[in-house]
Design brief:
Elements lengths: L1 E5 L13 E5 L2 E8 L13 H18 L7 E8 L2 H6 L1 H12 L5 E6 L10 E9 L1
Parallel strand pairs: 4-5
Antiparallel strand pairs: 1-2, 3-6, 4-6
């Protein structure tokens, strides 16, 4: 697979995301929304950063099980029940991303959500990847 991350100088600097990702490959993996559920289906973590780390780890576990790696992510959408809280923790969340997924950022968006499927969840991530 080849991935080209496009960040035009005419747009504000991309920090923690890429403005566009051009991916070519032979398989597309669609990743279902992941929250901070543990293997027993119980929500873990009481803070947004704690839940974000678990949700991202869950997303990457599904990706790896499908034969992919974090660098294969073309798009990730983050659903947050409190966007202001997400912004307040942006630096910490970026550190969690880099620790778990590295520095190759997909195209991303953060969307405010009134409530998620798991009622106590503060954040959910979904996305897709393009594999060779």
């Amino acid at each position: 697979m080849t991935v080209e991350r496009v960040n035009p100088s005419e747009l504000s600097p991309a920090a923690g995301f890429s403005h566009a990702v051009v991916a070519t490959g032979s398989r597309v993996v669609f990743l279902a929304g992941q929250t901070a559920l543990d293997v027993d289906g119980k929500l873990v973590g009481e803070t947004l950063p704690a839940q974000f780390g678990t949700a991202l780890a869950n997303l990457l576990t599904a990706l790896r099980a499908a034969g992919g790696a974090p660098a294969d992510l073309a798009r990730v959408t983050v659903y947050a029940t409190d966007v202001a809280d997400y912004r307040a923790h942006a630096a910490e969340l970026g550190g969690i991303w880099r620790r778990l997924a590295g520095r190759d950022y997909p195209a991303m968006a953060v969307v405010g959500a009134v409530r998620l499927w798991d009622e106590q969840a503060l954040v959910e991530l979904d996305g897709f990847a393009v594999l060779p």
